[in-house]
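Sample entry (325 residues):
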Amino acid sequence: MHENAPSLTAEQFAQHTSRIVASVSSVIDGKPEAVRSALVCLLAEGHLLIEDVPGVGKTMLARALAASVDATVRRIQFTPDLLPGDVTGVAVYDPVEREFEFKRGAIFAHIVIADEINRASPKTQSALLEAMEEHQVTVDGSSHPLPEPFLVVATQNPLEMEGTYPLPEAQRDRFMMRISMGYPDAAAETLMLRQRDTANPLSAITSVTDAATVRALISWARRVHVAESLEEYAVALAQATRQDPSLHLGASPRATLQLVRAAKVVAALDGRDYVVPDDLADLVIPVFAHRLLAARGVHRAGAQPVEAALRQIVARVPVPFAARV
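Predicted structure, serialized as tokens:
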């Protein structure tokens, strides 16, 4: 449990999370699943990768979540000339004190928006690896802890690949979930035209919670019960991806762990203190898909090969009988 995190009741958990969802949803019209996924990543201590075409609200979602939490927020525009030190920080020599002083980089914030992450060089992308996994930065042999909670929301455009550096497997594996925003429906797009013609909706958002409360929400979600049979079910789903002939790269043990952590938060958001099989099954694609690679020559009509393989895995892996009761 996080230190200095106030204890919450189930009712208080529901109240706080409902306020966050309502605040973000006031800006992101017609995308409740995207808003929920962002909150799940925040409370499960994961990171979110939003992959979609330009102009559908990727950065707006990240900014709305950041504005809803009274915590430190930094936005990093990833470009080819961005250096690792710009992200993590550098040691600068102080001639007066005659010693090196660490100058913190943009990664030192509760919520970090990594805009167009695939436009930075692999060397700069790798500067995020330690921060995302261990919540610390090591520069010149000295480790510097990052604030808690810590969330990276990264965006990338999957279509415009000129001048980009695709995220390597190790980097993608650091993200708990990958989602797509998708285009809004006609009603939501019409409402957006009316509301945003004269004002930026982000300017109207005020924080509805703070970092200490988020830490308490995280602690609450951690205590959600996962039956042993459901832990075995999560492992079975991950192992099935490693054995599927249509997949060249299966889910890592980190992916299994993050699947269970995300399921705990989903259960808590639904008002339960225990995980059910559907919590795990519904999260398999957003948690697993971006980590997997399809085998060469595998094509499935009408669907992405990795997602199609995951749907078949969910359909054939037996659900624990005891968990259904």
